[in-house]
Design a protein that fits this description.
The structure holds two protein chains of two kinds. Chain A has helices spanning 42-49, 90-100, 105-118, 134-146, 164-179, 191-197, 215-221, 235-242, 270-277, 293-307; strands spanning 2-13, 16-27, 31-35, 57-62, 65-66, 75-78, 152-156, 183-187, 200-205, 208-214, 226-232, 247-254, 257-263, 282-288. Chain A is an alpha/beta fold. Classes of the chains: A alpha/beta, B mainly alpha.
């Protein structure tokens, strides 16, 4: 059973189709990356999951139950465009937001104290929000999002505005929460954190999911059996050894070393390549060129664009 | 329901704890109180000293006939000198400009032959004396000229006075025990309540609008509506700020009452002496005008009758109905307008963009105000009846109508219409609000607002 499942969601705003038959399934205790270019429909999907808006058609299930207002308390949402009441004090504001999520005042206070200590911000309680820096406000917002211990955490661009140290802090908190049983939906353009954090992803483009599955499988499917070989020797020798059996993608110099990208063709294996190279060249290193999420993202979106 | 309570609590405490609220709440009544006292003081006295030169071409006023006449027939002194007015008389025509230039006088009054025949008198002054001083001078000159003309025509002044009677026109309602009709005065009292509702709707409506815009532009709104329904957030704000308004209103009423009571109490002593002076108890010196207490038995009677009439008006106003209606229409009107203002706040990103949408909301409000002003002049007109039913104007117009006295059916109809409409307007505003708070960028058109209203989900 999935913590969250959306089935065939359609949503239109006047002439604009925001979501066109989108389905996602988020397994429990995983981090799910919701990716896509700006305006693809991610925010609309997130708002539907948060019941801020409703779908025109399609269904959303939370732990197998049809999504209903009572689930609000089990979801924590950090929107991309987030703010706080500027004139309110930090503590007061956190108490207010926590109580809106259904915590009692007493419980909220205890948990807030814990979090404030953990983030080393317990001196901020009586500070006014307008006196906080952007990064400081982000910390407060993160706390208010997770304070009611949601089963499902939806984070939209959680790292924007953070310096690398605080971004790392949030990253670690996410992993800790995951290990404690929280399911996380992460919407971001930062592919580095997708690779570091996500178990599964869905890539939305032009209102549809164009790529989905586990990060491992997707990366595998985007492998091109290309290897990077760093060697010493003449390019001529390289050419002779490859001959017609392997495809030389490119050959260039890097830091006084020669580098070649070579694709295996047919049913040849890496061993065959090494066998061909070894007699002629001195090899420094061989690595498989695995596409990173950035490349996969761009490739998938471009392929989708030419498809249309 | 618990959540809407939290929102109301936050809105309320947040506003009430603000310094500006404290300042407004404390200084509001101080200013009101000061204004009331000030108005009383101004009415009672003009603190600057006026030296007035009365020049008379023919000289009757200065020399003999008119003055003599008065001595014979009337026990009332004219042109009394007092703490702040002094008169001087001169026969002939004076160069008013030159006299004023010497700064010996603040005003010069010139009587000519035409004054005696046609009653035209000119006063020269760089700064006109207060209305009460002007009135005194005018009344005294009028009185003197009357005496002159009476004598010239050899009519005894008593005869003249008995001929010259103004008409007092009283309207009696037979259905109400042949009492005098005070509809106009009662309309005034109703208007005062209408005015309070008008200002509070405006002031707190705009506060709601600003609050919604703050949440929207701060971008906190998306966090909150992931916990509560947009409608709850909107209503929480509307109700919370409404309660702030009521709190402020109650404090104002109490404080204004206290301040003006104590303020006037302290001032009363001075007031009494001033009134005594005005009645001519003090003795004049130098101008040769004879002084005497000047309140005749007639005038005393008039004053008593006037007081009785005020009491009568106060008794006639249906106070319980007025106060009940005040609360009801205050709340109903506020709910309608505040939710509309909330919708405006949700639709735009910046204060400057509100103008366009404010207009259709403020027009009925201002129109209602104008209707109630007109009702003072024409309390029983059809206009008042119609607009005391129309929901956008009834909260204001009905207050005037209620003070005059209104049939129970009209009142019930108006109340029913108001209830139905505030439910409708809150619903309408909620539809615009839920879409608007998440829309950023360009200002929507009315066509887009209409689309928002029709969106589902």
């Amino acid at each position: 059973m999935y913590t969250l499942e959306a089935r065939d969601i359609h949503k239109s705003y006047a002439a604009h189709k925001a979501l066109n038959g989108v389905s996602i399934a988020v397994p429990g205790q995983t981090v799910f990356g919701l990716l896509g270019p700006n305006g693809a429909g991610k925010t609309t999907l997130i708002r539907i999951i948060n019941q801020i808006t409703g779908p025109d058609s399609g269904e959303v299930f939370f732990n197998g139950e049809r999504l209903s207002p009572k689930h609000v308390e089990y979801i924590g949402y950090l929107p991309e465009e987030r703010g706080l009441y500027k004139k309110m004090k930090v503590g007061e504001q956190c108490m207010y937001l926590a109580q809106l999520k259904g915590l009692s005042a007493k419980e909220a206070k205890v948990r807030l104290m814990e979090w404030f200590k953990r983030f080393d911000i317990h001196t901020w309680w009586d500070k006014k929000v307008e006196d906080l820096s952007k990064g400081m406000a982000q910390k407060v917002q993160f706390i208010t999002t997770v304070l009611h211990e949601p089963k499902l955490l939806i984070l939209d661009e959680p790292f924007s505005g953070f310096d690398p140290i605080n971004a790392e802090l949030i990253r670690n908190e996410m992993l800790r929460l995951k290990s404690e049983g929280t399911t996380i939906i992460l919407s971001t353009h930062d592919m580095g954190s997708v690779e570091a954090l996500c178990d599964n992803i869905a890539l939305i483009n032009r209102s549809q999911v164009i790529l989905g599955g586990s990060v491992k499988d997707i990366k595998n499917s985007f492998r091109t059996r290309t290897y990077e070989v760093v060697y010493e020797g003449a390019a001529m020798d390289l050419g002779i050894s490859l001959w017609a059996s392997f495809e030389l993608v490119e050959n260039f110099a890097r830091e006084e070393k020669s580098v070649a990208h070579i694709r295996l063709t047919g049913d040849r294996k890496l061993n065959d390549l090494l066998g061909a190279l070894l007699p002629n060249l001195e090899i420094n290193s061989v690595n498989e060129l695995v596409p990173d999420m950035d490349q996969i993202f761009i490739e998938a979106v471009q392929k989708n664009a030419t498809h249309e | 329901m618990n959540k809407i309570g939290l929102i109301i609590k936050r809105e309320y405490l947040n506003k009430v704890r603000k310094k500006s609220f404290l300042v407004m709440t404390v200084f509001g009544p101080v200013i009101f109180g000061a204004m009331i006292i000030g108005a009383v003081m101004l009415a009672a006295s003009d603190t600057t000293y006026h030296k007035i030169l009365i020049a008379d071409d023919l000289g009757y006023l200065v020399e003999d006939e008119v003055m003599l006449y008065e001595q014979e027939h009337i026990d009332r002194p004219r042109f009394r000198n007092s703490e702040n007015v002094g008169y001087e008389f001169r026969k002939g025509t004076v160069d008013a400009k030159a006299e004023l230039a010497t700064e010996a006088y603040t005003a010069v009054v010139q009587l000519t032959e035409v004054s005696y025949t046609d009653g035209k008198v000119e006063m020269f002054a760089e700064k006109a004396p207060s209305m009460s001083v002007q009135n005194n001078i005018r009344n005294d000159i009028e009185d003197a000229l009357e005496l002159y003309r009476a004598k010239k025509n050899q009519i005894p002044i008593e005869t003249y006075r008995s001929i010259r009677q103004s008409v007092e026109f009283n309207i009696i309602k037979p259905s109400e025990g042949d009492k005098k009709d005070h509809t106009g005065e009662k309309a005034m009292i109703g208007f005062a309540f209408a005015l309070i509702i008008y200002f509070f709707i405006f002031f707190y409506g705009v506060q709601v609008m600003r609050g919604v815009m703050e949440e929207k532009t701060n971008r906190i709104v998306e966090v909150i509506i992931s916990s509560v329904k947009p409608f709850q957030l909107m209503m929480g704000k509307v109700i919370g700020i409404g309660l702030v308004g009521l709190t402020q209103f109650v404090i104002w009423v109490v404080l204004t009452g206290l301040i003006s009571t104590f303020g006037l109490g302290a001032y009363q002593q001075k007031l009494v002496t001033m009134q005594m002076e005005n009645m001519g108890v003090s003795v004049n010196s130098g101008s040769g005008i004879i002084q005497a207490p000047n309140m005749s038995a007639d005038e005393m009677e008039n004053a008593a009758a006037y007081q009785n009439e005020i009491l009568e008006i106060i008794y006639e106003v249906p106070w319980i109905d007025v106060l009940f209606s005040f609360v009801f229409f205050f709340i109903g009107g506020y709910l309608i307008y505040a939710s509309l203002f909330a919708a405006i706040g949700a639709a735009v990103d910046q204060e400057t963009d509100t103008q366009q949408f404010m207009l259709p909301v403020t027009i009925p409000l201002i129109f209602a105000y104008l209707v109630s002003v007109m009702m003072i002049g024409n309390p029983e007109g059809n206009m008042g009846t119609i607009f005391s039913i129309v929901p956008l104007t009834s909260p204001i117009v009905m207050m005037v109508k209620t003070a005059i006295g209104v049939s129970i059916w009209l009142k019930l109809l108006s109340m029913a219409v108001l209830v139905v409409s505030f439910i409708f307007f809150i619903w309408l505003a909620g539809r615009i609000y839920r879409v608007g708070i998440l829309m950023f960028g360009k200002k929507p058109t009315y066509k887009e607002l209409w689309k928002w209203i029709r969106y589902n989900g």
